[in-house]
Write a structure and sequence with these properties.
This protein has 21 helices and 22 strands. By secondary structure, the chain is of the alpha/beta class. Helix 3 runs parallel beside helix 7.
Length: 618
């Protein structure tokens, strides 16, 4: 399957310098208040139950566990599940997933709000489709289908036997005497793990905005990741929110979550206030049911090829003649530019010229998206406030067919708080925006997760202490220091997954899966060689850090132009990208580095401590 370029306004129909000025104005009026140190912490304090409690499933009492174990996997979302899968594939079977949720799923366990769907192509996002024989029901699958599929994987590959749920990891301490990590939990456990895999994911800890007076509000209040169907009515497979028929409701945020939930709130609430700081880019969502004939036609290796194609189109560039197989908002710019270059016979242009032309296509696509708002929202003032004035990918793009038309309902009002950089304050009865108090029965926070916060907030662990009590939080206070983004000096047998010092892939489950494959290889090799402790040598770590920094692609000009969002640290003075320190040469190059490293079999750059206390530098 492939698609044609979209119909965007010609570049001659708008003035790019004027748009740049408009973008800058809209960015500047939103800068300041929304940096993460103004948010309420949900791991501890008055709002601790938002993170630590589980409204989904009752907690079963149990006795504390005291045990030695080969591997502890902290998390049971996609990263934790894929870590378990790759460990078992390597023949490592003595492991536990530890998670404070009641079951498997990670963010797909917690997120159950109405309208929840994956906003990426499901044929890419859902891993192991060829290995399980499963096929998503449609392009953008519902959240409950994703969670069901995760359970299918667990059952098919026998991953869940030792999983420990409703168990919150509080701290990690390296015990030099026994060469193991001591894991402290909220259940009083003393788990002594030889290896620990940090699989706690990107969307982990809910974020509450630090609105003055939030603690004084007397009405109902919840975060979208803890949606209360007992209050709203309905359930996640049938979100009929009939209990809101007499309720005044406010939803704070217009990001990807609110875009999906707002149409349901507008349909059922007596009055809905949608509180917006910065509008999202929202395209039409074409969501066809999976064609069984297409599914039958797929050849072995199809998912890896589709993921490569998505990565090229969304992050890098389509090769000459390479079609866009994904055909949605994520790939539109590359698709349109590729069509232009094809019409010119794929001229040999410099990288600078390529990105200059890509910027023009970016403006064309954003003009199309702003025109879409005008065509769907009847009230002109509301339509103007909903227009996104920034470069594509400054905020996470979205797609939805009902969001804009929801504002045509008489019971729905947009409350624009861009000039005050958020809600001014909350009262006992509601909230204040631009001097006006809005009385509401329920405040719903679609305010996302601690994505670019400091690590102690993002991970929620009180302490991670390696050799000689060294805190990982202090060690990485200013800069990451790793080998391949997955191990760190002074923190033996501790492995990281996700965005730290590795390459980016457009499909996060592909990135997690490849990281877990690499980590599982190292653990298996250590076990086979009688190794008790594995960590990078100082020279190897220094060399990797220098290589990452030397090959870093400078995107600071783009970031400075962007409106505040979690993509780039919410507009803080020192932006923290959720991508960490990204490996500049790209995903394919990074994978070759790891493949070559594993292929040599020497565990080069790792210091290996054997049971006899002898230390070997590979």
């Amino acid at each position: 399957m492939s698609c044609q370029p979209t119909n965007t306004p010609p570049a001659s129909s708008f003035d790019i310098p004027s748009l740049r000025k408009k973008y800058a104005y809209e960015r500047d009026k939103r800068l300041g208040q929304e940096a993460t140190d103004h948010d309420v912490r949900t791991e501890g304090g008055d709002f601790a139950d938002v993170y630590e409690g589980d409204p989904r499933m009752p907690v079963t009492l149990r006795d504390p566990i005291s045990e030695d174990i080969d591997v502890a996997i902290l998390g049971a979302g996609w990263a934790g599940l894929l870590a378990a899968y790759h460990l078992k594939k390597q023949g490592v079977t003595t492991f536990r997933n530890i998670d404070h949720a009641g079951s498997w799923g990670g963010v797909w366990y917690w997120n159950r709000y109405p309208g929840l769907q994956c906003d990426n192509d499901a044929y890419c996002y859902l891993p192991l489709l060829e290995e399980t024989g499963f096929m998503p029901s449609k392009k953008f699958v519902d959240g409950f289908e994703i969670n069901d599929y995760m359970h299918l994987i667990v059952e098919k590959f026998g991953l869940g036997e030792n999983a420990l749920f409703h168990t919150l990891t509080k701290a990690l301490h390296w015990d030099e005497e026994i060469q193991r990590w001591r894991i402290e939990t909220d259940r009083g456990d003393d788990i002594r793990a030889r290896f620990v895999i940090m699989a706690n994911g990107l969307l982990n800890i809910p974020k509450f905005p630090g609105i003055p007076g939030i603690e004084t509000y007397k009405g109902k209040m919840f975060h979208t990741s803890r949606w209360d169907y007992g209050y709203t009515g309905g359930e996640r497979r049938s979100p009929i929110l009939d209990k809101l028929a007499d309720k005044h409701v406010a939803i704070v945020g217009t990001g990807a979550t609110a875009v999906q939930a707002t149409p349901f709130l507008g349909k059922y609430a007596r009055q809905l206030y949608v509180v917006q700081r910065t509008p999202s880019t929202i395209d039409q969502r074409d969501n066809p049911i999976t064609d069984p004939e297409w599914a039958k036609s797929l050849q072995p290796g199809w998912q890896a090829e589709r993921r490569r194609n998505f990565h090229h189109a969304a992050v890098e560039r389509l090769a000459p003649g390479e079609p866009d197989q994904i055909c949605d908002i994520w790939t539109e710019i590359s698709r349109n530019l590729s069509a232009e270059l094809a019409a010119e016979g794929y001229p040999d242009i410099s990288i600078e010229e390529y990105f200059r032309r890509r910027e023009v296509v970016d403006y064309q696509v954003m003009e199309r998206l702003r025109a879409r708002v005008e065509s769907l929202v009847e009230d002109k003032e509301t339509a103007e406030a909903l227009k996104p004035w920034y470069r594509f990918l400054c905020k996470r793009p979205a797609s939805n067919n009902e969001f804009y038309s929801t504002f045509n309902r008489p019971n729905v009002k947009l409350v624009d708080v861009s000039l005050t950089r958020g809600v001014e304050r909350m009262t006992e009865k509601g909230f204040v925006a631009q001097g006006v108090e809005y009385e509401v029965d329920c405040m719903i926070f679609a305010s996302g997760f601690e994505v670019t916060s400091d690590l102690d907030r993002r991970w929620g662990l009180e302490a991670i202490e390696g050799r000689n009590g060294l805190s990982l939080y202090d060690y990485w206070r200013d800069d990451y220091k790793t080998l391949h983004g997955m191990t760190a000096r002074n923190f033996p047998n501790l492995f990281f997954t996700g965005f730290i010092q590795s390459a980016f892939n457009a499909t996060i489950t592909e990135l997690m899966g490849r990281h877990c494959h690499h980590v599982a290889y190292i653990i298996k090799q250590a076990q086979e060689r009688g190794i008790e402790a594995v960590e990078p040598s100082q020279d190897a770590q220094d060399a990797w850090v220098e290589h990452v920094r030397a090959t870093h692609v400078d995107t600071s000009d783009f970031v400075r132009e962007c409106t505040p969002s979690y993509f780039f640290g919410e507009g803080s003075e020192k932006p923290r990208s959720y991508l960490g320190d990204t490996y500049g040469p790209g995903w394919d190059a990074f994978e070759r580095v790891l493949e070559d490293w594993r292929g040599e079999g020497a565990l080069e750059g790792l210091v290996l401590t054997k049971a006899t206390d002898s230390e070997v530098t590979a």
